[in-house]
Amino acid sequence: MKPAPFDYAVPRTIxxxxxxxxxxxxxxxxxxxxxxxxxxxxLQRVRPDLxxxxxxxxxxxxxxxxxxELRVGALVRHAAxxxxxxxxxxxxxxxxxxxxNIAHPPIRSRGxxxxxxxxxxxxxxxxxxxxxxxxxxxxxGPDGARALPAGDYFLGPHRTTRRPQELITAVRLPLLGExxxxxxxxxxRTHFTFAQVAVAAALxxxxxxxxxxxxxxxxxxxxxxxxxxxxxxLIGTETGPLPAGPRLPGEHPFARAGxxxxxxxxxxxxxxxxxxxxxxxxxxVLVGRTLLEAAADQRARLTARxxxxx
Length: 310
Prior knowledge:
This is FAD binding domain-containing protein. The protein is of the alpha+beta class. The chain contains ten helices and 14 strands.
């Protein structure tokens, strides 16, 4: 099947892109990596009148640290995050652990983080991390620039608070402190399918006590969600000795947080090969294991720092 006919614009500046998108009489789509858009157009599930290709706007490329945030331009490809050293500190580790779960190398070499936020698929890894870390989505439209908190940005599958005439210019992620450990675990049927469930976790620990917890759930509702009830159950809890294997005792705080996330935070939908009950079981297990890995990561960072300062 071939795409329905469409016009094609290649702006050279953000202003030109916004002008192209601002024609309210036309249905427009933005092309950055196009790894989801082109497929949907070929299947004619998406039929834009106009495709606005932003790949020739230099100011949308590149990522940099600004204060206590990482600003990721709209043209930064997934593959840029594969080296853990590409971004400083625990955030770089989290992004590196996550990105290898996104499709396969050809997709990662073209797709973009900002494109994931624009597409807003419930199974998007980046979107769940954005919600968990309180990221900000920068957009520019005919009325100027806006900063949209990720926690309020997603409304449902492919639905966000971004207006059709607005262009995502960047995503801002907060840098994570040195006392934070991170992990990301994904469960899927095959390497080339969407995640049935995935979990991102960041644990901040001071003197063996959890001071902050961030848990993002992938494909566990009709949008990416933050497991706030599970997080609350962890605050003030001592990490204690960490189990050696992935199986957690039922009374362990991480196992309890997994059950809370599955029953109170998640709202999974039935899907082929994974009904809602199956997903709840997977969420409970994966949350526990991801928290365990994050705690181990934090402890390893602490040990490395203490060894360095001896």
